[in-house]
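Quick one, tokens below:
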């Protein structure tokens, strides 16, 4: 994208809309810390004890310097930065937003099938998908995809197109690392004897209650959807995985509940297989 013709003018316009902004120098990077804050001696972001906003008079600490105060933006301490600025950045989390940064065509193709539509802004190599709501920022949540929200900044590239949608669980789930498959050492597996094809633990009602509870657990998840789905699958398999009472219908019910929360069929299959492997099934 081309350089912003008048960075300060754009910054003041955004600040008036309660979007915290900061200047970017050549290379599209923030201005460096001041001498007082060099090495984060002031207790800035890296030690997480004082995550911002930055209290320095000049432009310092990247995202933590972002402000909506026009008096600060036009102050003498910021004048040199604006003279050297080539673009404007903003703090999405400070504006109550989350940016899904799609860095290439493959990432855009994935988003169009996996995420709900929302406001979209074209970037040099891809697109920014902007949602209403905040979360912790994460890089490389999948190939070509970063999440920028709290304690992060994104370059302002225009208002974009489309209606702003609420931050979906499908985006929050990207930041949750699914437990890796655990391959236990081979060991004898005790398989309970089956009786007339019925669940040996109690009655068919016991199995139905277990499936219903797992569905409810997944449906009620408000965050950490990946981990919740995996945990629900693990709970069902730990109780019924060896007795032969689980049918394709039961498994389909669990997968349907997970997909309703934004999980893909591939994620469901991986979580199910990981749970089976963990239990040695």
């Amino acid at each position: 994208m081309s350089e912003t013709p008048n960075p300060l003018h754009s910054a003041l316009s955004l600040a008036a809309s309660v979007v915290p902004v900061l200047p970017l120098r050549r290379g599209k990077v923030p201005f460096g810390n001041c001498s007082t804050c060099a090495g984060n001696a002031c207790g800035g972001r890296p030690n997480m004890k004082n995550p911002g906003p930055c209290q320095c008079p000049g432009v310092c600490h990247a995202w933590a310097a972002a402000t909506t105060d026009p008096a600060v933006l036009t102050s003498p301490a910021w004048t040199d930065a604006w003279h050297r600025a080539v673009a404007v950045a903003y703090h999405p989390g400070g504006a109550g937003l989350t940016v899904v940064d799609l860095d290439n065509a493959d990432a855009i193709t994935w988003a169009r099938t996996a995420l709900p539509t929302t406001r979209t802004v074209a970037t040099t190599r891809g697109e920014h998908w902007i949602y209403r709501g905040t979360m912790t920022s994460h890089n490389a949540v999948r190939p070509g995809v970063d999440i920028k929200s709290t304690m992060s900044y994104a370059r302002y590239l225009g208002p974009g197109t489309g209606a702003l949608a609420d931050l979906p669980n499908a985006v929050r789930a990207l930041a949750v690392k699914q437990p890796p498959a655990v391959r236990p050492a081979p060991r004898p597996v005790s398989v309970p004897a089956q009786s007339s094809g019925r669940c040996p633990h109690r009655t068919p009602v016991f199995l139905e209650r277990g499936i219903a509870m797992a569905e409810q657990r997944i449906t009620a998840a408000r965050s950490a959807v990946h981990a919740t789905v995996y945990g629900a699958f693990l709970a069902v398999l730990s109780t019924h995985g060896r007795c032969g009472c689980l049918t394709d219908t039961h498994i389909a019910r669990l997968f349907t509940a997970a997909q309703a929360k934004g999980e893909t069929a591939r994620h469901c299959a991986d979580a199910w297989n990981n749970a089976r492997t963990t239990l040695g099934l």
